[in-house]
Predict the 3D structure of the following.
Amino acid sequence: MSNATATLPQPLCDLGMIMPTVAEAKQLDEQGYVILPGIMSADTRRRIGTRLDELEGQVPVVDDLKNFQVEAGTARFANLIDQGPLFDQVWCNPRVLGCAWQVFQREFKQSSLNAREPKAGQGHQPLHADWGARDPSRPFEVVNSLWLIDGYQSDNGATRLVPGTHLLPGGPRDAMTDPAAAHPDEIIVLAPAGSVVVYNAHCWHGGTINRSGARRRVVHSYYTARENAQQQDQRRWLSAETKARLNEAQRWLLDV
C-alpha cells in the first residue's frame, strides 16, 4: 500500500506527521498492528497516570454522554482532550498520525480520547472489531492507538488480538461460536510501559482478565475516516476553553 506524501493534507504536515518505516508499514498492512516502543518518557507516564488516578475519584454520572461507556470491573474515562494540554502529545503524536495515514490513505480525524483500566479479576472482553463486520470492498474506517501508562504483561489484562483479521470478511461472530472464547490464532500483546500499540481497528481484539491485579492503565486515542461520525462528537462536547488554546491544525484534526 502506498504511503506517498504528495497528497497529505496540510494540517497533518503542520502537526509534523512522521510516516512509519518500511517494516512498520508492512506489519500494519499485513498483520494489522505495530508496537512503537519508547514513545512516552517516565515523566509523561507519571503525569498522565496521576491525572487518571485523580479522575477515578470523580465518578461520572451515567447519563453524561462525555463518558459514553460504562463497563463493570473497570475504570473508564472519556473526553480526555478537555483535561488540558497534557494529553495533546497523545492525540497529536506525529508517529501515530503517520501510522493512521498508512491505514486510512485518506483524510481522517480524531474520534475519541479515553482511558481504561481493568481491576483485579476483571476486564475480559469478547473479540470484536470497532467497525462491525468487514466488507473487503470498502476502505478501512477506524484506527486505534493504545498508550501504555503501565506495561502490558501476560497476566494484567493486556489486549488480545488476532493478526490479519482486518483483511477478512465478516467479524468474530461469523467465524466463532463464542467470541468470548480464545481464538487459535490470537496473541496477547506484550509491551513495556511507555510503548504505543497502533492497530487497524477492524482487527479482532479484546481485553483479557487482569489476573495479577497489577496496574494496567491505557489511554486510547481513536481515529476515524473524515467522512464518518465521531465516537464522541467533539463539536458538542469540547469546551470553549480547550478550543481557544488549540492551533488550526489541531482543530482540523478534531473537526471543530
Observations:
- The first strand starts at residue 33 and ends at 36.
- Residues 121 and 226 are 38 Å apart (CA to CA).
